[in-house]
Amino acid sequence: MTARPAPDEIRDWSRSVGVCDDDPPLVLGGRQGLAAYRDMVGADRLASADPETFGAAIHQRRLSVVTATRALRTPLTWHAEVSEPPPDGDFLLIAMPDAAGSSGDHVVVVTGGSPEPPSSGDLADVAALRIPADELGVGARTLATAGVLIPDTLLAAVAARSVRGFVSSVIARDVRTPTLAAEIAMIDMLSAVVAETGCRTGDVSGTTAYVREQTHELIERHFRDPSLSPAVLAGRLHLSRRQFYRHFEDCDRSVAEMIADRRLQAARVLLISNPAASIASVARACGFASLGAFRFRFRRAYGLGPNEFRDRLAQSRAGGAPASAETSRPVG
């Protein structure tokens, strides 16, 4: 049975990660330590063969959107049952190169490695990104079935190395420069890995239900691309514009409005969660072609501009009052 990491092992590991001695990791142990580790990583179905012997050293950093974790820990097993996520729940996605599985309202996307603990019983060096599911850019159905080992593809191998490199980079240094663009790049890459795993084979169906489903999936995956448009979506589905539009004739919103609404939703989340980000960087990160277009659509949807939205939210927080309905819901 693997023993808890010793102090000298933890010190050498931290140095190999690039963390200075004056920034020691959080050290956890035993049953309470295992519970704390599950909570930090976001995976409540990770289990130890002997919880009393569990031990881990953790470096963790919360960035603009994602949370990066690097851990040296004793082996854990994974209860790999996959359950449907709640349709409106704020569940999380974890990309872990060295572990796999899913739990409750969480799923794990493996970007390399094995879903089982190391057979040698050695300590596991885990790098993980905890990403809000609504930022990942894939649909709930794909997420719900993604808690399995991703096939050994070139894209998955690149993603695994990228996850480890990105986590190590932000953990090893005092991050003062904005990381939003890099975080979005990582999210987009992991979106592609999930989409590759969940992609379908065969001819594109011509049924309205299928076209609508695929359109929503494509919007989720690509809304950050400023060039995304109904014409681009029609092309990706191998349909003419006329054929494509016919599948949405009885919808309350046009496809262009669906794209704009998804971008606005992402922008609103970033404005709330990342108050230091400039309005221009938020607009770019969410796929708006220009700052003017972003301001116009935001004001039309929420009844006030993005700067006013952020100011009002700050005033609400300072006063201890919840955000008003005007800052919480689109107008109309």
UniProtKB/TrEMBL annotation:
Gene3D superfamilies: Homeodomain-like (1.10.10.60)
Superkingdom of the source species: Bacteria
Domain spans labelled HTH araC/xylS-type: 213-312
Sorted UniProt keywords: DNA-binding, Transcription, Transcription regulation
PROSITE patterns the UniProt entry points to: HTH_ARAC_FAMILY_2 (PS01124)
Entries under Pfam families matching the protein: HTH_18 (PF12833)
This protein's name: HTH araC/xylS-type domain-containing protein
Organism lineage string: Bacteria, Bacillati, Actinomycetota, Actinomycetes, Mycobacteriales
